[in-house]
Amino acid sequence: MTNYLTRMARYNQWMNRRLYDKVQLLPADEIAKDRGDFFGSILGTLNHILVADLFWLRRFSSSQQCKDALAPMREMTMPSSLRDVLFNDIQILRSKREEMDALILNFSATWNEEMLASPIRYRNMAGEKHQQPLGALLQHLFNHQTHHRGQVTTLLFQGGIDPEATDLLVMMMEENLSI
User: Fold this and answer.
1) Cβ-contact 116, 5 below 8 angstroms
2) How far apart are CA 1 and CA 118, in angstroms?
3) What angle, 0 to 180 degrees and rounded to 10, lies between the N-to-C axes of helices 134-158 and 2-23?
4) Which of 57, 81, 144, 160 has the most CB atoms less than 10 A away?
5) Percent of the residues in the chain that have a pLDDT greater than 90, as a whole number
6) What predicted TM-score, i.e. pTM, was given to this entire model?
7) Please, are residues 156 and 163 in contact by the beta-carbon 8 Å criterion?
8) Can you tell me the distance from the alpha carbon of 82 to that of 102, in angstroms, rounded to the nearest whole number?
9) Can you tell me the distance from the alpha carbon of 111 to that of 128, in angstroms, rounded to the nearest whole number?
């Protein structure tokens, strides 16, 4: 599972860079335009992805096995809701996204099978207690991002921008070409 999740951390960073490149082809008012999406706009959806990552990484950082790798999380201001818009400026949002992706990638360098099997205890947004292995929660983190990036690609199409290939396989082929 370690290899798979590490690949997903790389894909996460790779795809977010590509997506933000495409989003920034639109004017700011089009990025913030309410398109009837669950989070309203491209900007709202991209903020949601970052907000969810903040919540998950803070939960992970409270565990003994993750606290050192995720020490920067202790200094980050936490949102109050999954619908919070933290940044209205796409440049600032992109910068924060890049910081988060770098943190996730650095965190991935610490993973091993034992760590991924270890339980993470946390409370969900309703305050209910839960426990799942770190590896399963990381799968959720990456799947959540992929889901919402898919929504953004639809919103980009609506705005007249072709997001181009978003497949993990494309990144894997690019990695093989660079070896």
Assistant:
1) yes
2) 13
3) 20
4) 57
5) 91
6) 0.94
7) yes
8) 22
9) 27
Summarize pLDDT for 129-141 with one digit per residue, the tens.
999 999 999 999 9
Q: How many CA atoms lie within 13 A of 92 on its CB side?
A: 7
Q: Where are the alpha helices (DSSP H) in the chain?
A: 2-23, 28-31, 42-61, 90-108, 113-117, 134-158, 168-177
Which residue ranges make up each domain of the chain?
2-173
Place of tokens 């920034």: 24
CA distances from 70 to 29, 94, 104, 170 (A): 35, 20, 9, 29
What would the two tokens of residue 155 be? 């919103």
CATH 3.50.40.10 fits 2-173, yes or no: no
**Residue whose entry in the numeric block shows the structure tokens 């993990």:** 168
pLDDT in tens, 32-75: 999 999 999 999 999 999 999 999 999 999 999 999 999 999 88
Are 61 and 73 contacting, i.e. CB atoms less than 8 angstroms apart? Answer: yes
92: Cβ–Cβ under 8 A, 6 or more apart, which residues? none
**Count of C-beta atoms within a 10 Å radius of residue 56:** 19
Confidence of residue 179 (pLDDT cuts 50, 70, 90): very low
